Amino acid sequence: MATITELASEIVLSHASNTPMTKDELIAELREVHAALTALDKGEAVAVEGEEAQEAAPAITKRKAFGKKQIFCMICGKGFTTLKRHLSAAHDMKPKEYRKQFGIPAGTTLASKDYSESRRQMAIDRDLAGGLAKARAKKDKKAKKS
Prior knowledge:
Layout: H1 4-18, H2 23-42, H3 50-56, H4 62-65, E1 71-72, E2 79-80, H5 84-90, H6 95-102, H7 113-125, H8 128-145
Helix pairs in contact: 1-2
């Protein structure tokens, strides 16, 4: 049977293989996992200390979170191009819940400004709005015939 240290290292290794982590984050997570496994082995309740602290104070201010090249997660402070996938994968949270927790207006996009602009420009270049207008006109024409 594997020791608690071996189990903790396997768990952290698995998590680190999917999530970029610094050396300090790896060490901290290894300590937390080891402590949790030790508590479970002794039959004690596992204390979750990070979640309450994370909800109380954001890791980064709202002003700094919305950057030109990256948008930063206010829970963990990591930077991304878009937040939707990160929120669901890392924090098991939907964008609506995230906006509510940090008081972000519903119209605010959870993507970096550069990314939004590049997607907008791509839509203009491909004339996606023109295609949509043509499709709607065609649909309206069919509806009037009926």
